[in-house]
Design brief:
This protein is of the alpha/beta class. The strands form four sheets. A three-stranded parallel β-sheet has the order 6-5-7. A two-stranded antiparallel sheet has the order 1-4. The relative contact order is 0.10. The model has no long low-confidence stretch (mean pLDDT about 95). The chain is globular. The protein has two domains: about 1-45, Alpha-Beta Plaits, CATH 3.30.70.1250; about 45-175, Alkaline Phosphatase, subunit A. Helix content is about 35%, strand content about 15%. The longest helix is centred in the middle third of the chain and has 21 residues, at about 120-140.
Length: about 220
């Protein structure tokens, strides 16, 4: 399957290129197939420099947990950590927080999308949120004085909709840190790039020029 997807990746380029070719291995028998953790995304490299590229060039360590490495075609990632599910990702996040004292840790929790959202599994999604909430407590305990935690999403995937497609509600943007102001309403952002611009300000670097930073709105000094 990987070989076929790699061939497809090489073909689907040019003017009408496809951003990602995804291999989704599965096991089981007809009527009860189940996806495995061996998913692999064959992505086009980003068309422009990203904040990950900028951070890496400036010597900032960028750790990708989950499918981050695949999404950015390996670009701007110093260290990539494979995960099998949300719990494994959270476990590896807490371990990485203990190991890495500086840099950016970029984590993707794929089960909310692949396992529960697209499968319309409301109960699974609800339990996943509860498990994440419990795991977040340990993450918060591990944050250092100047660390910043940003929780967001790239799209909705409401398991209660009739469709199995992505849903289009606004996504959350939650930011926490010991040196941040409390109860700041960041409003409706103009772009996902606002997070990138904010990261540039946090690391005191020139960003990509895209997005509007909210760092001054939340930094207490």
């Amino acid at each position: 399957m990987y070989e076929i997807c790699q061939i497809a990746r090489e073909l689907l380029t040019g003017e009408n290129a496809v951003a990602r070719v995804i291999a989704r291995p599965f096991v089981g028998k007809p009527g009860s197939f189940k996806r495995t953790d061996r998913r692999k995304d064959f992505s086009l490299p980003p068309p422009e420099e990203t904040i990950l590229d900028i951070l890496q060039k400036k010597g900032v360590k960028v750790v990708g947990i989950g499918k981050i490495q695949d999404l950015f075609a390996g670009r701007g990632i110093t260290r990539s950590i494979h995960t099998v599910d949300n719990q494994d990702a959270m476990d590896k996040l807490t371990q990485t927080l203990k190991e890495e004292k500086e840099g950016l840790i970029f984590i993707n929790l794929v089960d909310f999308d692949m396992v529960w959202g697209h499968r319309n599994d409301v109960q699974g999604f609800a339990k996943g949120l509860e498990d994440f909430d419990r795991g977040l407590e340990e993450v918060l305990d591990l944050l250092q004085t100047y660390d910043v935690l940003i929780i967001t999403a790239d799209h909705g995937c409401d398991p209660t909709t009739p469709s199995t497609d992505h849903s289009r509600e606004y996504v959350p943007l939650l930011v926490f840190g010991e040196k941040l102001k409390k109860s700041v309403n960041l409003g409706t952002r103009i772009s996902f790039s606002d997070v990138s611009a904010t990261l540039a300000d946090i690391f005191e670097l020139q960003g990509t020029g895209k997005g509007e930073s909210f760092w001054r709105e939340i930094y207490a000094g």
